[in-house]
Each structure stands twice: as C-alpha cells, then as structure tokens.
Amino acid sequence: MQNRTVYVDFDGTIVDVFPRYFKIIQEYMLNNFNLRLPYGIFVNRKRTGKKEHEIIRELCQRDIDIEDYVMFKRERLENKEYLKEDRIIDNPKLAYEKLKKEGYHVKLLSQRRNAENLRWEIGYLNIKNCFDSITVVEPTSNNAKLEYLKNIVNKDDIIIGDSPLDMECAEELNIKGYFVESGLYNSDVFSCEIRKAADYNAVVSKYIVIKEKKF
C-alpha cells in the first residue's frame, strides 16, 4: 500500500520566523531613520496580513521606498546569519513520530529562493530527523507549491502550513489542509471556516492522530 503523504511547511510551521523578519525591518529602520519598532506590535500587525511598508507607515508615520526595502529584505531574508534568528516551534520530532505511527510519509515542502541555505538551517537546528524527504520550490508569481503538487498529490494526502497559499493548495487539490496559527498569519485572514490549531503538534494531535471528524 502506498504511503499517504503529509506535506509540511517550514517557515511559521516548523520554525518561528518573526525574530528574523523583525531583525531585518528593525535594521532597516535604524539605518534609515534611527527609529525602533515595538516587537509585539509589529508581530500583531504582520499577522493580520499587512505589508511591512504599511506597518512602518502606521507605527512611525513614515513612507519608505518600497523597492529599496524589498531589495534590502531580499538580500538578508535567507542569509545564514539571519536564519540563525529562527526558533523551533514546540517539538516537530514528536509530531513526526505520531505521523509515522499513522502510516504517513512526512515531506517538508518549503518555498524558498535558496534551497542550500534551507538545508543548512535544518542541519543547524538539528531537525533533519523530523522529515522523510525535503522539497524546495522557488517562489513565483503564482502558487509554486500548487504547481508542484498538482501532478503528484493523492486524495488521502494532507498539507499543513501557516499561509493562505497552503490552504489554497488544499482547496484546489481537494485534499485536507490544516492551518497553524504559529506563523505569519492568523486565521482572521480567511473569510471561511478552516481546520486550524495552534501549531504543528496541535494539528497532528487534534485532527490526524485522534481523527476528529469535526472542526
């Protein structure tokens, strides 16, 4: 019997990326305006889906050169020194073990520009043993994960992630999608009801292992 596959996101699902994002935006604000942003307020605004230039305008009453900021951020976002800011969320190894008992193949499916640095980060964080396989897709103007999955996914596969793009994959491919509230978005960004839990371990326990039929 072919294994069912769980496609697990990385940023916001396996690791907390807010320290990395905040370090970048704080550095930009200090370099250009000698201003500091409050971390907690930045996180709250970001999780509602606001763009970072909008957050800067709201908090600092400043308009920035958006292209300049995008380039500044892109040069740093997947740089190893900034990736060191990421923190593991809860216990992905425990979630992996639970999924294996249920007969799932656990595939990390991440959208990154620098696949080599993602693999480095996984080694740096010592979480290689949390996945059976790793696939990295490069961001595109469309949903790169959906393009990757549409020709290989099976009806019993599932996807776990922290973004609307992950849930779009589930909807378009007619598979189950589970949203974690540990990432860059909160569930208020959705206009419809979704399967959600606090984090990866909670999703595994709440929906997959104990097989709840309602959400």
Automatic annotation (TrEMBL):
<dbReference type="InterPro" id="IPR041492">
    <property type="entry name" value="HAD_2"/>
</dbReference>
<protein>
    <submittedName>
        <fullName>HAD family hydrolase</fullName>
    </submittedName>
</protein>
<dbReference type="Pfam" id="PF13419">
    <property type="entry name" value="HAD_2"/>
</dbReference>
<dbReference type="GO" id="GO:0016787">
    <property type="term" value="F:hydrolase activity"/>
</dbReference>
<keyword id="KW-0378">Hydrolase</keyword>
<dbReference type="InterPro" id="IPR023214">
    <property type="entry name" value="HAD_sf"/>
</dbReference>
<dbReference type="InterPro" id="IPR036412">
    <property type="entry name" value="HAD-like_sf"/>
</dbReference>
<dbReference type="InterPro" id="IPR023198">
    <property type="entry name" value="PGP-like_dom2"/>
</dbReference>
